[in-house]
Write a structure and sequence with these properties.
The chain has about 500 residues and is of the alpha+beta class. It contains 13 helices and 9 strands. Among the domains are: about 40 residues; about 150 residues, Glutaredoxin (3-Layer(aba) Sandwich); about 100 residues, Ubiquitin-like (UB roll) (Roll), CATH 3.10.20. Helix content is about 50%, strand content about 15%. It comes from Wallemia mellicola (strain ATCC MYA-4683 / CBS 633.66).
Length: about 500
């Protein structure tokens, strides 16, 4: 913030000395309005001291603003009075701009004594950057040797001592922002290719030692040509820059806060500037290295390390948060999965229970129907004849049931008799039972012969059954009466 105030005061008063602007702000408590008033008052006091002084030696005073130098109505007292009136008029105009909240660069624009520059045509930033690099490359390649005999040697020497610099591609504001955010040392240069010779590009921007110094200290270099770059033109007009080339040095510095002078915070600062030299050369490199880089680089390195540690801590925290979120998400997914599995298991168990209940109900219903059918079926068995074929049925539980059958009795009737031994007889016709099959088989004991369950075959058709005998029942009849009927063996 302090360097911004210094820049604004330099722009308003049109002074290039940043130390003078810092002194004015420091004496005024860093109040721009008060600094401007003190500046105008000091100008008026300097004029009166000059008028009243009869000696060549004059006391220390603030320098006269370049914009009001050589301005007056004549010589002597008339010139001094005109200068004083001009100063008062500028102060009144500045107050009017301040009260109306107009942009401060308007003040500098109105009192800019330089020749008005013609604004360049607006072009994309990439194109302006390409034009600048092309002009630097042309400035380097234009230094051709005077004779062909020294062409190879001088070309090799030029390649070893001059390189195309790595310039920042972007606007002036973005360059300063990156200088602040990345804790870099910023070198900002304004040039005017229409008036400036190629010496600055060749001996300064493309100079190999300068670029080596820039690369060693990780400096950000932004160069704006006001003849091709509209952004550079607008910045130069707003700052009131009249002399080109102009090189400014910006960096972060530890400055005290306005609330507590014992507490310092990193603040973007304008360290200094140089104007009007076509070739800065070795003096600029030495000044840049000894006065600025060696003093500021350790602090910038510490800021970068602190930023790296903050970014590293933030990255670790974000990674831990992501891992925790992923773990929580996995846990939530597992819980949901278990809930879904439990719900599916419960649903499956419920379906199985319902199916079993349905099967039990169907089975019970079928058993009721089957029992009724058997009760009715028993009533359809022909009665026992007096003189019939005696057959003894040996049941699986050891009982023997003896009954006489007519020779014309079908084999199916034998199965019906065995199946209805333990049921009560009923004449009520039940529901039709489809595909009813007895759960047993009948065999002649001797000779062993299987008796099929056929309705179209009768006892007389079997040579063994016609004689009577014992029939073994191979089955699992679940219900038997507790009462046993004893019959005589055949």
């Amino acid at each position: 913030m302090l360097d911004e105030k210094v820049d604004r005061l330099q722009t308003i008063l049109e002074i290039d000395d940043s130390a003078l602007a810092s002194t004015l702000l420091d004496d005024s408590g860093w109040d721009i309005e008060l600094a401007v008033e003190n500046y105008f008052n000091s100008q008026a006091s300097s004029t009166e001291n000059t008028e009243n002084s009869n000696t060549s030696a004059t006391p220390y005073r603030l320098p006269i603003s370049p914009s009001i130098a050589h301005v007056g109505l004549g010589s002597g007292r008339s010139a001094q009075a005109g200068s004083f009136i001009w100063t008062i008029w500028r102060g009144i105009l500045w107050l009017a701009i301040k009260i109306l909240r107009l942009p401060l660069w308007l003040y500098s624009f109105l009192f800019n004594q330089s020749v008005s520059f013609t604004p360049p045509e607006p072009v994309p930033q990439e194109e302006a950057h390409s034009l600048l690099l092309s002009s630097i490359d042309e400035a380097v390649n234009s230094r051709e040797p005077s004779s062909s005999s020294t062409a190879v040697a001088r070309t090799t020497q030029r390649q070893n001592t001059h390189v195309i610099p790595s310039l920042y591609l972007g606007t002036h504001s973005n360059a300063l922002r990156d200088v602040k955010n990345n804790a870099q040392f910023g070198i900002i240069a304004f040039i005017d290719s229409s008036t400036t010779s190629d010496d600055f590009k060749y001996h300064t921007l493309a100079e190999e030692k300068f670029n080596k110094l820039v690369n060693e200290h990780d400096c950000l270099v932004w160069v704006g040509d006001i003849s091709t770059n509209r952004d550079a033109y607008d910045v130069a007009i707003s700052k009131g820059i009249r002399i080109f080339p102009r090189v400014e040095v910006h960096s972060m510095q530890a400055l005290p806060t306005s609330r507590n002078a014992l507490v310092s915070v990193p603040t973007m600062s304008h360290l200094g500037s140089i104007s009007g030299k076509d070739s800065l050369g070795e003096d600029f490199r030495n000044l840049l290295s000894s006065r600025y880089l060696n003093r500021v680089s350790p602090y910038l390195r510490r800021l970068r390390n602190e930023k790296y540690e903050r970014q590293r801590a933030t990255y670790i925290k974000e990674a831990a948060d992501r891992a925790e979120n992923e773990r929580m998400q996995r846990d939530a997914e597992n819980v949901l999965k278990k809930r879904e599995e439990s719900a599916r298991s419960a649903k499956a168990a419920e379906d199985i229970a319902q199916q079993r209940e349905k099967e039990r109900n169907e089975k019970a219903n079928n058993e009721v129907i089957l029992r009724e059918y058997r009760n009715w079926l028993k009533s359809t068995i022909p009665g026992e004849p007096a003189d019939g074929i005696r057959l003894a049925f040996k049941l699986p539980d050891g009982r023997r049931v003896i009954r006489k059958f007519s020779p014309e009795t079908s084999l199916e009737t034998l199965y019906m008799f065995v199946d209805t031994i333990d049921v009560e007889m009923s004449t009520k016709k039940p529901t039709r039972v489809v595909d009813f099959e007895p759960e047993f088989k009948l065999y002649m004991s001797y000779p062993c012969e299987f008796i099929p369950n056929l309705s179209d075959r009768v006892i007389s058709q079997s040579q063994n059954l016609i004689k009577g005998g014992i029939i073994a029942v191979e089955s699992d009849i679940k219900e038997y009466s507790s009462e046993e009927e004893d019959y005589d063996e055949v």
